[in-house]
Amino acid sequence: MTEKELRIGRIRYLNVLPIYYPMESGVMGRDFKLVYGAPAELNDMMARGELHVASASSVEYARHADQYYLVPDIAIGSCGPVMSVLLISRKPIWELEGETVLTTAQSHTSACLLRMLFRDYLKINVQYETGSVMESIESGDLPTAALCIGDDALRLRSDDRYPYRMDLGEAWREWTGLPFIFGVWVISRKAVEDGCFNRDPATLFIRAKDWGVANMEQMVSMAADTGYLSKEDMRTYFTKGLVYNLRTKEQEGLRLFYRRLAEAGEIPAVPELVFYDHGTMTPPECRQEPEDD
């Protein structure tokens, strides 16, 4: 069976630097292709079969679990304050009853979590409007409250115009006692069915994650060069704010999120977490893993 070069979707958020830098730098070899894009673009490319592996929001997996396998033991989440998924507000959070919250279109998972927290945890009724948070703020049209994620959240977390903030990862942890998983890595079932990968994608990502975690101080220094946070704050962000594992507790938190989404009618049903296994899901001639360069 003919092998095919592994095509990997790469989002540009800073929080995935420890996963992708080992691939971009050549540490993991160069027998794969990285394709850059926004999350929605990568989702569409996965659906069309143009990518084999990519990160996906937790909600994207829930809504299309029949199209994907999960890469084992890798995710992007938090076990407390995540720092880069924030509700920022010009008035105290508990005074937002009846107000409109501007939500980003960049992350379905964060928006679903925010609605869940307001509805079921805070018991505050708010309205939602979707748009570009940064464009609104930069134009001087300041929303009363806004959900910001990723690099935008790191930029705005100390903005004096928004003195009130709720870290969504921290709020989930306070509510449930569990980690929250914002995103996962998925492998296209269609790509698996269509033929051989030139290497095991799950092993590639796990090795990249392990390398990034083992060299986290280098990742912190590179991330601090963006100027979003001080080096000390960036170290806290990467080593205390984020989690990259998808083990028992993380899976428990993810399943609870799915159950509550299903109860609210946000997803049709709670999806099963189905993990990719190169040894059983590919033909024998595809299973040999080449040595890293």
Word description of this protein:
This protein is of the alpha/beta class and 293 residues long. It has two domains: 3-79 and 180-286, Periplasmic binding protein-like II (D-Maltodextrin-Binding Protein, domain 2); 85-176, Periplasmic binding protein-like II (D-Maltodextrin-Binding Protein, domain 2, 3-Layer(aba) Sandwich), CATH 3.40.190. The protein is built from 13 helices and twelve strands. The strands form four sheets. The chain has a five-stranded mixed β-sheet with strand order 8-7-9-6-10. It has a three-stranded antiparallel β-sheet with strand order 4-11-5. Belongs to the MqnA/MqnD family. MqnA subfamily. Its EC number is 4.2.1.151. This is Chorismate dehydratase.
Task: Put the structure in a nutshell.
One of its GO terms (biological process) is menaquinone biosynthetic process. It contains 13 helices and 12 strands.
